[in-house]
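Bench log, entry 3. Co-assembly request; chain sequences pasted below exactly as received.
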Amino acid sequence: MVKRFSAKRNMIREALLELDHPTASDVYDYIRKEYPNISLGTVYRNLSEMAEDGEILRLSMSNSPDRFDFNTEDHYHVVCTECGHILDTGEGLDAKLLSDLDRAVEASTGLFVKSRYLLFYGICRECMKKDSGKE
Amino acid sequence: MVKRFSAKRNMIREALLELDHPTASDVYDYIRKEYPNISLGTVYRNLSEMAEDGEILRLSMSNSPDRFDFNTEDHYHVVCTECGHILDTGEGLDAKLLSDLDRAVEASTGLFVKSRYLLFYGICRECMKKDSGKE
DNA sequence: ATCCTTAATAGTAATCATTATCGTTATTGT
DNA sequence: ACAATAACGATAATGATTACTATTAAGGAT
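Structure output for the full assembly:
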Protein backbone atom coordinates (compact mmCIF):
# COMPACT_ATOMS: atom_id res chain seq x y z
CA MET A 1 0.00 0.00 0.00
CA VAL A 2 1.88 3.03 -1.30
CA LYS A 3 1.76 6.06 1.01
CA ARG A 4 0.49 9.27 -0.56
CA PHE A 5 0.95 12.82 0.58
CA SER A 6 -1.68 13.88 3.08
CA ALA A 7 -2.20 17.36 4.47
CA LYS A 8 -3.99 15.94 7.50
CA ARG A 9 -1.12 13.61 8.30
CA ASN A 10 1.23 16.58 8.25
CA MET A 11 -1.05 18.48 10.60
CA ILE A 12 -0.91 15.51 12.93
CA ARG A 13 2.89 15.48 12.73
CA GLU A 14 2.91 19.16 13.55
CA ALA A 15 0.58 18.63 16.51
CA LEU A 16 2.87 15.91 17.84
CA LEU A 17 5.79 18.33 17.79
CA GLU A 18 3.76 21.04 19.45
CA LEU A 19 2.01 18.99 22.13
CA ASP A 20 3.67 16.99 24.88
CA HIS A 21 2.91 13.25 24.70
CA PRO A 22 -0.64 13.94 23.55
CA THR A 23 -3.54 11.53 23.35
CA ALA A 24 -5.41 11.08 20.07
CA SER A 25 -8.08 13.43 21.30
CA ASP A 26 -5.50 16.05 22.34
CA VAL A 27 -4.23 15.97 18.75
CA TYR A 28 -7.78 16.16 17.45
CA ASP A 29 -8.62 19.19 19.59
CA TYR A 30 -5.40 20.94 18.65
CA ILE A 31 -5.95 20.56 14.92
CA ARG A 32 -9.64 21.34 15.15
CA LYS A 33 -8.95 24.84 16.41
CA GLU A 34 -7.54 25.70 12.98
CA TYR A 35 -9.23 23.12 10.77
CA PRO A 36 -12.57 22.23 12.33
CA ASN A 37 -13.39 19.70 9.63
CA ILE A 38 -10.84 17.04 10.59
CA SER A 39 -12.31 13.77 11.79
CA LEU A 40 -11.35 12.00 15.00
CA GLY A 41 -11.18 8.75 13.03
CA THR A 42 -8.58 10.28 10.77
CA VAL A 43 -6.46 11.19 13.76
CA TYR A 44 -6.72 7.69 15.20
CA ARG A 45 -6.03 6.04 11.87
CA ASN A 46 -2.97 8.14 11.13
CA LEU A 47 -1.52 7.84 14.62
CA SER A 48 -1.97 4.07 14.55
CA GLU A 49 -0.40 3.77 11.11
CA MET A 50 2.51 6.01 12.03
CA ALA A 51 3.11 4.00 15.19
CA GLU A 52 2.86 0.81 13.15
CA ASP A 53 5.40 2.17 10.67
CA GLY A 54 7.73 3.11 13.51
CA GLU A 55 7.52 6.83 12.74
CA ILE A 56 6.21 7.57 16.24
CA LEU A 57 5.80 5.72 19.55
CA ARG A 58 2.56 4.65 21.18
CA LEU A 59 2.64 4.83 24.97
CA SER A 60 -0.01 2.93 26.83
CA MET A 61 -0.60 4.30 30.27
CA SER A 62 -2.77 2.35 32.64
CA ASN A 63 -6.30 3.67 33.08
CA SER A 64 -5.96 6.41 30.52
CA PRO A 65 -5.96 6.71 26.76
CA ASP A 66 -2.83 5.96 24.77
CA ARG A 67 -0.35 8.75 24.22
CA PHE A 68 1.97 9.32 21.30
CA ASP A 69 5.58 10.45 21.10
CA PHE A 70 7.37 11.78 18.03
CA ASN A 71 10.67 10.91 19.66
CA THR A 72 11.54 7.36 18.61
CA GLU A 73 15.00 7.45 20.11
CA ASP A 74 15.65 4.85 22.76
CA HIS A 75 14.23 6.48 25.88
CA TYR A 76 11.69 5.90 28.63
CA HIS A 77 8.98 7.80 30.45
CA VAL A 78 8.24 8.97 33.94
CA VAL A 79 4.85 10.09 35.19
CA CYS A 80 4.30 12.54 38.02
CA THR A 81 1.56 11.10 40.22
CA GLU A 82 0.68 14.60 41.44
CA CYS A 83 0.22 16.57 38.24
CA GLY A 84 0.16 13.79 35.64
CA HIS A 85 3.00 15.35 33.70
CA ILE A 86 4.96 12.94 31.51
CA LEU A 87 8.70 13.41 31.15
CA ASP A 88 11.26 11.73 28.92
CA THR A 89 14.39 10.16 30.25
CA GLY A 90 17.46 11.31 28.42
CA GLU A 91 18.14 8.81 25.67
CA GLY A 92 21.36 7.53 27.13
CA LEU A 93 19.79 5.72 30.07
CA ASP A 94 22.96 3.79 30.84
CA ALA A 95 22.85 0.96 28.36
CA LYS A 96 24.84 -1.26 30.70
CA LEU A 97 22.24 -0.95 33.45
CA LEU A 98 19.51 -1.91 31.03
CA SER A 99 21.34 -4.86 29.59
CA ASP A 100 22.22 -6.04 33.09
CA LEU A 101 18.52 -5.84 33.86
CA ASP A 102 17.69 -7.83 30.73
CA ARG A 103 20.20 -10.50 31.74
CA ALA A 104 18.70 -10.67 35.23
CA VAL A 105 15.20 -11.06 33.77
CA GLU A 106 16.42 -13.72 31.37
CA ALA A 107 18.09 -15.64 34.17
CA SER A 108 14.93 -15.43 36.22
CA THR A 109 12.39 -16.35 33.54
CA GLY A 110 14.16 -18.14 30.71
CA LEU A 111 12.65 -15.66 28.28
CA PHE A 112 15.00 -14.08 25.76
CA VAL A 113 14.41 -10.34 26.15
CA LYS A 114 13.88 -8.44 22.89
CA SER A 115 12.42 -5.21 24.24
CA ARG A 116 11.06 -3.62 27.35
CA TYR A 117 8.45 -1.15 28.38
CA LEU A 118 9.50 0.86 31.40
CA LEU A 119 7.39 3.41 33.18
CA PHE A 120 8.41 5.23 36.34
CA TYR A 121 6.10 6.97 38.77
CA GLY A 122 7.04 9.64 41.24
CA ILE A 123 7.01 13.34 42.05
CA CYS A 124 8.36 15.87 39.61
CA ARG A 125 10.46 18.88 40.60
CA GLU A 126 7.63 21.36 40.29
CA CYS A 127 5.29 19.34 42.50
CA MET A 128 8.06 18.74 45.01
CA LYS A 129 8.44 22.50 45.43
CA LYS A 130 4.71 23.05 45.53
CA ASP A 131 4.22 20.28 48.10
CA SER A 132 7.09 21.20 50.41
CA GLY A 133 4.99 24.01 51.91
CA LYS A 134 1.98 22.00 53.08
CA GLU A 135 1.48 18.61 54.87
CA MET B 1 -17.20 0.60 54.26
CA VAL B 2 -16.85 -2.60 56.29
CA LYS B 3 -16.07 -5.68 54.21
CA ARG B 4 -18.48 -8.59 54.57
CA PHE B 5 -17.98 -12.22 53.72
CA SER B 6 -18.82 -12.97 50.13
CA ALA B 7 -18.95 -16.37 48.48
CA LYS B 8 -18.44 -14.79 45.07
CA ARG B 9 -15.33 -12.97 46.17
CA ASN B 10 -13.91 -16.26 47.40
CA MET B 11 -14.67 -17.87 44.06
CA ILE B 12 -12.78 -15.04 42.41
CA ARG B 13 -9.82 -15.59 44.73
CA GLU B 14 -9.87 -19.26 43.86
CA ALA B 15 -9.98 -18.50 40.14
CA LEU B 16 -6.97 -16.20 40.52
CA LEU B 17 -5.02 -19.03 42.10
CA GLU B 18 -6.09 -21.45 39.41
CA LEU B 19 -5.65 -19.27 36.35
CA ASP B 20 -2.45 -17.66 35.18
CA HIS B 21 -2.63 -13.83 35.12
CA PRO B 22 -6.25 -13.92 33.97
CA THR B 23 -8.34 -11.09 32.61
CA ALA B 24 -11.66 -10.24 34.25
CA SER B 25 -13.45 -12.21 31.59
CA ASP B 26 -11.16 -15.22 32.06
CA VAL B 27 -12.19 -15.21 35.71
CA TYR B 28 -15.82 -14.78 34.74
CA ASP B 29 -15.72 -17.74 32.32
CA TYR B 30 -13.91 -19.92 34.84
CA ILE B 31 -16.44 -19.33 37.60
CA ARG B 32 -19.41 -19.53 35.27
CA LYS B 33 -18.61 -23.15 34.42
CA GLU B 34 -19.56 -24.07 37.99
CA TYR B 35 -21.83 -21.19 38.96
CA PRO B 36 -23.50 -19.87 35.83
CA ASN B 37 -25.34 -17.16 37.72
CA ILE B 38 -22.34 -14.95 38.53
CA SER B 39 -22.36 -11.53 36.92
CA LEU B 40 -19.50 -10.04 34.96
CA GLY B 41 -20.01 -6.79 36.85
CA THR B 42 -19.45 -8.62 40.11
CA VAL B 43 -16.15 -9.95 38.82
CA TYR B 44 -15.02 -6.52 37.69
CA ARG B 45 -16.12 -4.87 40.91
CA ASN B 46 -14.38 -7.39 43.14
CA LEU B 47 -11.18 -7.45 41.12
CA SER B 48 -11.04 -3.66 41.15
CA GLU B 49 -11.68 -3.46 44.87
CA MET B 50 -9.15 -6.17 45.66
CA ALA B 51 -6.56 -4.38 43.53
CA GLU B 52 -7.46 -1.11 45.24
CA ASP B 53 -7.04 -2.77 48.64
CA GLY B 54 -3.67 -4.16 47.59
CA GLU B 55 -4.83 -7.76 47.90
CA ILE B 56 -3.98 -8.42 44.24
CA LEU B 57 -2.15 -6.66 41.40
CA ARG B 58 -3.68 -5.17 38.28
CA LEU B 59 -1.46 -5.49 35.22
CA SER B 60 -2.25 -3.28 32.29
CA MET B 61 -0.95 -4.69 29.06
CA SER B 62 -1.04 -2.52 25.98
CA ASN B 63 -3.81 -3.33 23.50
CA SER B 64 -5.41 -5.97 25.66
CA PRO B 65 -7.63 -6.10 28.72
CA ASP B 66 -6.14 -5.77 32.18
CA ARG B 67 -4.87 -8.87 33.89
CA PHE B 68 -4.74 -9.69 37.58
CA ASP B 69 -2.13 -11.34 39.72
CA PHE B 70 -2.67 -12.82 43.18
CA ASN B 71 1.08 -12.52 43.80
CA THR B 72 1.69 -9.10 45.34
CA GLU B 73 5.33 -9.76 46.10
CA ASP B 74 7.74 -7.38 44.44
CA HIS B 75 8.16 -8.89 40.99
CA TYR B 76 7.77 -8.05 37.32
CA HIS B 77 6.37 -9.60 34.18
CA VAL B 78 7.60 -10.80 30.84
CA VAL B 79 5.42 -11.44 27.81
CA CYS B 80 6.24 -13.89 25.06
CA THR B 81 5.51 -12.15 21.78
CA GLU B 82 4.99 -15.53 20.08
CA CYS B 83 2.49 -17.27 22.33
CA GLY B 84 1.35 -14.40 24.56
CA HIS B 85 2.30 -16.31 27.69
CA ILE B 86 2.97 -14.12 30.74
CA LEU B 87 5.70 -15.14 33.15
CA ASP B 88 6.73 -13.76 36.52
CA THR B 89 10.25 -12.74 37.33
CA GLY B 90 11.51 -14.27 40.53
CA GLU B 91 10.87 -11.78 43.28
CA GLY B 92 14.50 -11.10 43.99
CA LEU B 93 15.18 -9.16 40.80
CA ASP B 94 18.41 -7.72 42.13
CA ALA B 95 17.30 -4.79 44.24
CA LYS B 96 20.57 -3.00 43.56
CA LEU B 97 20.04 -3.05 39.81
CA LEU B 98 16.59 -1.58 40.26
CA SER B 99 17.66 1.14 42.62
CA ASP B 100 20.56 2.01 40.33
CA LEU B 101 18.02 2.31 37.55
CA ASP B 102 15.84 4.56 39.72
CA ARG B 103 18.84 6.77 40.46
CA ALA B 104 19.69 6.99 36.75
CA VAL B 105 16.10 7.97 35.93
CA GLU B 106 16.09 10.54 38.70
CA ALA B 107 19.34 12.03 37.46
CA SER B 108 17.94 12.19 33.96
CA THR B 109 14.49 13.62 34.72
CA GLY B 110 14.57 15.26 38.14
CA LEU B 111 11.57 13.16 39.15
CA PHE B 112 11.79 11.37 42.48
CA VAL B 113 10.96 7.75 41.67
CA LYS B 114 8.39 6.13 43.94
CA SER B 115 7.48 3.08 41.88
CA ARG B 116 7.95 1.54 38.49
CA TYR B 117 6.07 -0.57 36.03
CA LEU B 118 8.35 -2.86 34.07
CA LEU B 119 7.30 -5.14 31.26
CA PHE B 120 9.65 -7.22 29.17
CA TYR B 121 8.93 -8.70 25.76
CA GLY B 122 10.72 -11.58 24.16
CA ILE B 123 10.61 -15.26 23.27
CA CYS B 124 9.93 -17.86 25.91
CA ARG B 125 11.74 -21.19 26.16
CA GLU B 126 8.91 -23.21 24.64
CA CYS B 127 8.60 -20.95 21.60
CA MET B 128 12.35 -20.86 21.16
CA LYS B 129 12.35 -24.66 20.83
CA LYS B 130 9.33 -24.63 18.58
CA ASP B 131 10.81 -21.94 16.33
CA SER B 132 14.31 -23.38 16.05
CA GLY B 133 13.02 -25.93 13.51
CA LYS B 134 11.62 -23.55 10.92
CA GLU B 135 12.84 -20.29 9.24
C1' DA C 1 -4.69 18.59 -19.10
C1' DT C 2 -7.67 14.56 -18.47
C1' DC C 3 -8.41 9.92 -16.86
C1' DC C 4 -7.84 5.97 -13.57
C1' DT C 5 -6.69 3.65 -9.66
C1' DT C 6 -7.01 3.63 -5.05
C1' DA C 7 -5.16 6.00 -0.68
C1' DA C 8 -7.13 9.09 2.47
C1' DT C 9 -11.00 11.36 4.50
C1' DA C 10 -15.46 12.65 7.09
C1' DG C 11 -19.06 10.99 9.29
C1' DT C 12 -20.93 7.61 11.69
C1' DA C 13 -21.86 2.95 13.39
C1' DA C 14 -19.91 -0.77 15.87
C1' DT C 15 -16.92 -3.00 19.23
C1' DC C 16 -14.48 -3.80 23.41
C1' DA C 17 -13.27 -3.04 28.11
C1' DT C 18 -14.89 -1.15 31.98
C1' DT C 19 -17.82 1.46 35.21
C1' DA C 20 -22.28 3.04 36.92
C1' DT C 21 -27.05 2.41 38.24
C1' DC C 22 -30.73 0.25 40.55
C1' DG C 23 -33.81 -2.80 42.48
C1' DT C 24 -33.09 -7.18 45.04
C1' DT C 25 -30.56 -10.38 48.10
C1' DA C 26 -27.85 -11.64 51.91
C1' DT C 27 -24.37 -10.78 55.74
C1' DT C 28 -23.71 -9.34 60.27
C1' DG C 29 -24.23 -6.65 64.40
C1' DT C 30 -28.06 -5.72 67.66
C1' DA D 1 -36.03 -12.00 64.21
C1' DC D 2 -34.75 -7.17 62.62
C1' DA D 3 -32.52 -3.37 60.72
C1' DA D 4 -28.67 -1.39 58.22
C1' DT D 5 -26.22 -1.72 54.31
C1' DA D 6 -22.52 -4.53 51.62
C1' DA D 7 -22.81 -7.33 47.76
C1' DC D 8 -25.22 -9.00 43.92
C1' DG D 9 -27.36 -9.69 38.99
C1' DA D 10 -28.93 -7.47 35.22
C1' DT D 11 -28.37 -4.12 32.34
C1' DA D 12 -27.48 0.65 30.82
C1' DA D 13 -23.91 3.93 30.11
C1' DT D 14 -19.29 5.52 29.18
C1' DG D 15 -14.82 6.04 27.02
C1' DA D 16 -11.39 4.61 23.86
C1' DT D 17 -10.70 2.76 19.69
C1' DT D 18 -11.72 0.42 15.33
C1' DA D 19 -14.62 -0.59 11.31
C1' DC D 20 -17.55 0.76 7.53
C1' DT D 21 -19.07 3.42 3.59
C1' DA D 22 -19.70 6.79 0.40
C1' DT D 23 -16.92 10.69 -1.17
C1' DT D 24 -12.63 13.20 -2.14
C1' DA D 25 -8.20 13.70 -3.95
C1' DA D 26 -3.10 12.15 -4.76
C1' DG D 27 -0.31 11.09 -8.44
C1' DG D 28 1.04 8.00 -12.22
C1' DA D 29 -0.40 6.87 -16.99
C1' DT D 30 -2.47 8.57 -21.30
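The longest strand of chain B covers residues 112-123. Chain B has five helices and five strands.
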